[in-house]
Amino acid sequence: MAAEGPESMTGYIKHHLEHLSRGEGFNALHLDSIFFKVLLALLFVTVFIGVARRATAGVPGKLQCAVELIVEFVDGLVKETFHGDGKLIAPLAITIFCLVFLMNFMDMLPVDALPAAAHHLGFEHLRVVPTADLSTTFGMSICVFFLIQYYGIKHKGLGGFLSEFVSAPFHANGVVGKILVAGPNLLLRLIEEAVRPISLSLRLFGNMYAGELIFILIACLTLGATLSSWVPWVLGPLQFVAGFAWTGFHILVILLQAFIFMMLTLVYLGQAHDKH
Fold first, then answer.
1. Based on the number of CB atoms within 10 Å of its own CB, is 153 exposed (0-12), middle (13-18) or buried (19 or more)?
2. Residue 221: inside a domain, yes or no?
3. Has residue 114 been placed in a domain?
4. Residues forming the active site
5. Which residues fall within 8 angstroms of residue 95, CB to CB, at 6 or more apart?
6. Cis amide linkage into residue 237, ω under 30° from 0
7. Average pLDDT for residues 192-207, to the nearest whole number?
8. Is residue 5 part of a domain?
9. Whole domain around residue 118: which residue ranges?
10. Share of the chain above pLDDT 70, in %
11. Number of structural domains found in the chain
12. In this structure, are residues 254 and 64 in contact, taking their beta carbons and an 8 Å threshold?
C-alpha cells in the first residue's frame, strides 16, 4: 500500500485516516460515514422491530432477553433523570445509546478487513467508524441542541423560556437589580448553550478517533516487521499483546461513550423541561 522506505508507515496511517468522500472542504460528503450510519440504523431498527413482533410472554430467547435488558435499563434512567412525559424521551434515549454503541463497535473490526475489500471493489479509501468522523458526532449534537430548545419552549412557553436567559443563575430583587444581573446571566446562558453541542460532539469524536488511531498504530507493527526482517520475532508478539490489551480496554470505552452521550442528552433535556 505504501512505498518501501522510512515513510511507508506514515503513508499507511494517512491512507487509513482518509475518507471516501465527494467534494472538498466544508462541502465534502463523507460517503463511507453516511453508508455505515444508514446500514447500522437499519440493523438497529430491524432487530428491535423483529424482537418486538416475536416477543413471547414465556421464557424469552437470548436476543429478546438482551433487548428487554436494554429497554428496562434505559427506561429506568429516563424515569430518574427526566421528570416529564417520557413517551418520546425513552425511545430517543434507546436509539441514541444503541446507534452510538453500534457505530463505536465498528472499531472492533480488523483495521484492514473492510478497507481491503473496498479496495478490490475499486474504492481507494474507506473508514468504517462513523463516530471517528467529526461531521457525524457534531450532527448528532446539533440535533440534541435543537431538541433542548424545543422542549424548553414547549414546557415553559416562549416567554418563560426566554426569561430564563436573563434571570438565572444570578437572582436579584427590584427592577434595577434585575437589570444589572441580566447581562451576566445572558452571557453565561449563551456560553452554556454553545458549549453543550461542542462538548457532546468533541468528547465522542476524540475518544473514538484516538481509539481508531491506536488500532492503526498497532497494525503498523506488522508493517514494521515486514520492513525490518531482523526483528519480526519481537514485533509479532508485541503486536498480539498490545492488540489484545487495547481491545479489552476499548470495549469499555465504546460502551462508556455511548452511555455518556445518552446520559448527557437526558440531563440536558431534563434541564430544559424543569423550571429554575
1. middle
2. yes
3. yes
4. 199, 203, 207
5. 44
6. no
7. 92
8. no
9. 15-273
10. 88
11. 1
12. no
